Amino acid sequence: xxxxxxxxxxxxxxxxxxxxxxxxxxxxxxxxxxxxxxxxxxxxxxxxxxxxxxxxxxxxxxxxxxxxxxxxxxxxxxxxxxxxxxxxxxxxxxxxxxxxxxxxxxxxxxxxxxxxxxxxxxxxxxxxxxxxxxxxxxxxxxxxxxxxxxxxxxxxxxxxxxxxxx
Length: 166
Fold this sequence. Notes:
Elements: H1 2-35, H2 48-58, E1 62-66, H3 72-83, H4 85-93, E2 96-100, E3 118-122, H5 148-165
């Protein structure tokens, strides 16, 4: 009987630990649904409101990426963004990150229209930094894959501006 109960107990432990391992794996994989391919190692916030809250709390700028699944320009930018180590590293450590497939009610996030891809920065003081723009005068906040160095500069600028202005 002793042997039997030990056997049953160890089987139970195996079952529990494999369920636990699966739960832990699931836990680890959760952010990837929010990443939507922009970077699975990045912690993404779910909503604009949550992003503003986290930015204020952490004193980090919020980076908002507007995109759509069926937009080829978004897909191309996403690939370049996800593959760039410097961007990924800054996004993980220095920014509150949000990618959205819908518009927010905050009109400040679409100062020159609701196009995609569009990347904007919001200061921890909750000011939308309309002054941090890309290279194109007709779509101020859009970036193309070849603009990645420019986006990196703008990320650094967003970080620099909080240190000097707050």
